[in-house]
Amino acid sequence: MRYKYKVRELKTTNQKDIADVGEAIEMEAMSLKKLKAKLDHKKTYHVEYTNKHGNFISTGIKGKEPK
Q: Where exactly are the structural domains of the chain?
């Protein structure tokens, strides 16, 4: 695998705030698109990784919805 991603599940609270849930899980995938296919589409995740240009990326994503 080319990239290592640190993935944390995010949970919304009653006041629409977002809070971390649990520890960071390290996952591997060839691209962010392929990582999204592995994640649950009903949950929101916080992902951190370093791209091919050496830039640190920290973003919030959801998994890919099945057809």
A: 3-62
